[in-house]
Amino acid sequence: MTQHHNLINGEWTAADSYCPNTNPSDLSDVIGEYAQGGAEDVQAAVAAAAAAFPVWSTSGIQARSDALDKIGTEILARKAELGELLAREEGKTLPEAIGEVGRAGQIFKFFAGECLRLTGETVPSVRPGIGVEITREPIGVVGLITPWNFPIAIPAWKIAPALANGCCVVLKPADLVPGSAWALADIIHRSGIPAGVFNLVMGRGRVIGEALVNHADVAAISFTGSTGVGRGIAEACVKSGKKVQLEMGGKNPQIVLDDADLNQAVELSAQSGFYSSGQRCTASSRLIVTDRIYPAFIEALQARMAQIKVGDARAAGTDMGPVVSQAQLEQDLSYVEIAKAEGARLAAGGARVACHTGSGKDGFYMAPTLFVDTEAGMRINREEVFGPVASVIRVKDYEEALAMANDTPFGLSAGIATTSLKHATHFKRHSQAGMVMVNLPTAGVDYHVPFGGRKGSSYGPREQGRYAQEFYTTVKTAYTLA
Q1: CATH superfamily ID and name for 253-438
Q2: Where is the active site (predicted)?
């Protein structure tokens, strides 16, 4: 069994223990063993990053750009291979996995260009004979803590802007999916970036994450994950004066109005709710449907769900892979029982299923699940399940649908299916979400524009695109007497 080490100060560094990385589509398939680092590994990685920062933060922008472009080029060239690894360890289908890898490559390419577009301002002073320059400088060593549901794209959209803006990095990937992060680290390691600029420390969140958050030499923490963990990180960062960026939960609404194109509304709801096994923070788990279209929508969505083939993520014909782990499967099934107990009507799914290919592989397979005739106050409509489970709420009109959509502690993504320009325009302005989709799935965003939400979904500056600079830099104002 191949052991995969941590990357610290430009060297692959052995750990005291290793953990197997198991394929959720086939529990007999172990991908490899990955390092379980400790607090001492974080200390070494942060020390290396801090030592590398003075040179990297003031280095030539062309060298940074060339390195990021080289990383992006290799990722794209190995898209099929890396997609195979991603599908194997995380469970999203092979086409989805290859698409995610492609996105990671494009992110590095984008920020290779951003290295050459670092700008500032020169403004006149209110005092004669004095000039004022406003510039941005890299914030320092950043700790990046990433989740399991996008094991290469989310590390990429944190690492690339950090490096582009002159920061040094310690990455802690999710313990469930270390393979994609290790492969990305290997590519970065061979890109020509100096030792210590990028470091990878794998291991348990309670060990590695806490050590990063509490380290005095880490200037900022960017975290994507659960709301509870995120709030704890925010509290610790505020106490120590660290800059913090959080992407957390979602309970994303998808409104379907009476005037919607039925086939389009059904397809975007199915894609948002069940593709990637519903394991996307932007997934639509609340379908808010108006009266007249409600019966036809439910019937058509049930028929569409019956076509979804659940099975091995890498097998041809699979539409939905397994959920990521036994714990996640148990959580998803527990919400099915909670919804039933609260009076929701199960219209489809709700149980573990066998692989559609009939291969006999033992995996964490769950049928896409739909509850209808639900009430807004039910837990199924208030709490994030993070699985292939959606619920439908019936409302009388657009105004009630909008109020229902906004009635949530979260605010990441929200969608509306309608042919009414009036309602679409009003929804874009009045939806309390960071991202709004009109006649599109709520899951699915571009790599060159900002990503993030409102309320309990996000905290701090936006990720991705040019807006990422806000987190990874600090502003300096310099005055010069002419």
Answers
A1: Aldehyde Dehydrogenase; Chain A, domain 2 (3.40.309.10)
A2: 247
Residue linked to tokens 């808010």:
288
Give the residue among 366, 12, 33 at the shortest CA–CA distance from 186: 12
- The per-residue pLDDT for range 202-228, each reduced to its tens digit, is 999 999 999 999 999 999 999 999 999
The catalytic residues are 247
Residue 226 corresponds to which tokens in the numbers above?
């659960």
How far is residue 184's CA from residue 294's CA, in Å, rounded to a whole number? 45
* pLDDT tens sequence across 41-71: 999 999 999 999 999 999 999 999 999 999 9
Residue whose tokens read 């109005």: 257
Is 463:450 a contact under the CB 8 Å cutoff?
yes
Residue 18: half-sphere exposure toward Cβ, Cα within 13 Å: 19
Out of 3.40.605.10, 3.30.950.30, 3.30.43.10, 1.10.1060.10, select the CATH number for domain 3-248+457-481.
Answer: 3.40.605.10
Write down the domain spans for the chain: 3-248+457-481, 253-438
- Are the beta carbons of 176 and 225 closer than 8 angstroms? no
